[in-house]
Amino acid sequence: MKKLVLARRISQGLFLLLFIYILWSSTYPLKGLLPPETFFRINPLIVFVASVSLRVVLPGLILCVLMLILTLIFGRFFCGWICPLGSTIDIAGALRRKSPNLTDKLNAKLGKGKFVIMVIIFIFAYFGIQIAWIFDPMVIMARFVSLNLIPSVTLSLDKAFSAVIRGFKLYGPLYDFYRALKTSVLGVRVAYFSHSLVIFLFFALIISASGLLKRFWCRLICPLGAIYALAARFSLLKRIISPCVNCKRCKSLCRMGAIHDDLSYAKGECVLCMDCIYDCPAHATVFAFAKKAMVEPGAKNEGAKDGISRKNFLVWLVISVISFLGFRNRLEGPAAPRANIIRPPGVENEDEFLDRCIRCGNCMKVCITNGLQPLLLQQGLSGIWTPHLIPEIGYCEYNCTLCGNVCPTQAIPRLSLEQKRQARLGLARIDHALCLPWSKSKDCIVCEEHCPISDKAIKLKEENIQGRIIKKPFVDPALCIGCGICQNKCPVRPERAIKVERT
Predict the structure, then answer these.
(1) What's the rounded Cα separation, in Å, for the pair 209 and 502?
(2) Burial annotation 228-258 (CB, 10 A radius, 16+ → b, else e)
(3) Whether 121 contacts 320, CB under 8 Å
(4) Which of 383, 373, 360 is CA-nearest to residue 41?
(5) Would you call 489 helix, strand, or coil by DSSP?
(6) With contact defined as beta carbons under 8 Å apart, do 486 and 382 qualify?
(7) What's the rounded Cα separation, in Å, for the pair 194 and 143?
(8) Global confidence as pTM
(9) Integer Cα distance of 499 and 179 in angstroms
(10) Average pLDDT estimate for 367-374
(11) CA-to-CA distance for 392 and 371, rounded, in angstroms?
């Protein structure tokens, strides 16, 4: 029995399910046993990069250092035993037993890509721009789970239950079970997410790449894997082979291309999948804490070096600085559109928000009204997939603080309910040319009725028009918090007569 492989698969499955559970249970109306930032607090890439970019120490630094210490002992275990995206890639790559048998030189060249990406990410962070969210595996997985998996699964299950119950008139135990689910798992209200197809295609591209080369993303691109690879080069746990029949079966089947032609291996690339132990026909491979790994007598224990050389580091440092200086304006985007982008409550400094936000989708997933949506290019490249409020879809619920509570980096501040009620998102403005009482002298006080402020931020003034008393709404700027409920409920179509603009 492949005990170690079985243990690794169980570990992958449990951590993948735990990851999905944490994200799912942090969705309204559920409340999980673990906070939504659990996995992100043990993510060195996100914590280190955000800390450098913001010039602050983010919570989780100690846990990240602990993860690196464990890597120094056991090797790159996180990538092979814990990482949710790595586990998903393994599931997708299970259909391909063997990867193309690449040469050591080509493997080494391809493997340097992730180190180059890691260096570029830290250089941009030094200059105050956080782009780790593009490549971080846990963020990519969280975004897919929050904005694709949970909405599609809950919608599919809801439709399936409804169809079966109505079609076969099963208004008994099955209906009671369905109602119980509606108060928990199926109670998640996620009607729509803009650009969710783009997010899914990005995720699908990463997963499908394993059809070309097993663990394509992990071997060539993943910057978090690069951090663990650097630490794993000095790990105490080593692969030992003796005696060896030189069949090279382990090399041909290695999912990470970590084994060289001379049967030595790159410790930084090994994710401890343990396949080589059981693939070896001579049962000559083991992992143990040893001073020096043994190889078949006569074999050269050299192989291509993993990692990135000092020369390459300096070259990419120069290229990255030049790229940063040349494309900074494009990354930041034009200033004009920013004024119309309504951020979640408590967000005051746009630049700090962009540096802290890792685009995980947690805030959008928990939004009760579905009003928080991902940006695409409305604010340039720097704003991609950050949350903003679209009042036509949903407003910011006056009695809700969920988005701040689930944000793993506190890009959205964690506010008390009283603080949240006073947080200004923007300011509502009435277009007199569209407003029914102002333009057509028709009765309509919908915006004033729905305003949640106790003293009413939308007030009414009465005018006598041809013998009729018309109540005309106007906004009190001192009271309006820009929650957007007035815009959401305004009956004027296709363009609303009242709109919230960011101040």
Answers:
(1) 41
(2) bbbbbbebebbbebeebeeeeebbebbbbbb
(3) no
(4) 360
(5) helix
(6) no
(7) 13
(8) 0.85
(9) 37
(10) 92
(11) 8
CA atoms of 259 and 282, how far apart (whole Å): 17
Q: Each residue of 459-468: b (16+ CB within 10 Å) or e?
A: eeeeeeeeee
286 bridge partner residues: 240
Please name the residues in contact with 287: beta carbons below 8 A apart, sequence gap of 6 or more.
237, 238, 239, 240, 272, 274, 277
Half-sphere CA count of 170, side-chain side, radius 13 A: 15
Lowest pLDDT segment from 283-297, 371-385, 432-446: 283-297
Tokens representing 79?
A: 């990538």
The C-alpha atoms of residue 126 and residue 490 are separated, in whole angstroms, by: 45
Q: What is the pLDDT of residue 179?
A: 80
Tokens of 125: 């962070």
pLDDT given at position 443: 93
Domain boundaries, given as residue ranges, for the chain: 3-289, 424-503
b/e sequence 74-112, b meaning 16+ C-beta within 10 Å = bbbbbbbbbbbbbbbbbebbeeeeebeeeebeebbebbb
When pLDDT is averaged across residues 195-209 and rounded to a whole number, the result is: 92
Strand partners, 175: none
CA distance 358 to 385: 9
Q: What tens digit of pLDDT does each residue of 269-300 get?
A: 999 999 999 988 888 899 998 655 444 433 44
Token digits of residue 193: 């997410």
Which amino acid would we find at residue 306? D
Q: Is 395 helix (H, G, I), strand (E, B) or coil?
A: coil
How far apart are alpha carbons 354 and 346 in whole angstroms?
Answer: 14
CATH top-level class of 424-503: alpha beta
The residue behind tokens 């699964």 is 153
The whole-angstrom separation of Cα 489 and Cα 351 is 31
CB 437 within 8 Å of CB 470: yes
CA–CA gap between residue 479 and residue 497 (Å, rounded)? 19
> Per the omega criterion (within 30 degrees of 0), is the bond before 243 cis?
yes
Helix (H) or strand (E) holding 450: helix 446-450
The rounded distance, in Å, linking the Cα atoms of 234 and 476 is 64
435/446 Cα distance (integer angstroms) = 11
